[in-house]
Write a structure and sequence with these properties.
Blueprint lengths: L11 H13 L4 H15 L15 H4 L23 H7 L3
Length: 95
């Protein structure tokens, strides 16, 4: 793997926070920035090693999702499946 130096401008306060986070993890700024780049590329599907799925740390504690969890909490109106008005369709389609 060939590494290249990249220079960019960033807010001074954000750099301070980044350095504090790096120090807390016993890492340097470069490590955290490379991790952030890799995460961004994976999340956007542009890396050679895509993530199969992203999960929360505590997902295994909760178990699989169960249908009906919010039954009775809210009601779906009778018009839910009705076609949208033309003006709203244009808004959703970016016209």
């Amino acid at each position: 793997m060939v590494f290249k130096t990249v220079s960019f401008r960033a807010d001074e306060e954000k750099l301070k926070e980044l350095d504090e986070a790096a120090k807390a993890q016993h890492r340097d700024r470069t490590f955290l920035l490379n991790e952030a780049i890799e995460g961004y590329l994976r999340a956007n599907g542009t890396t050679r090693n895509p993530v199969d799925r992203m999960v929360f740390d505590n997902e295994s504690e909760k178990g699989p999702r169960k249908p009906g969890r919010f039954k009775g909490v809210f009601e779906v109106g009778a018009s839910f499946d009705d076609p949208l008005p033309e003006d709203e369709v244009r808004l959703w389609s970016g016209e």
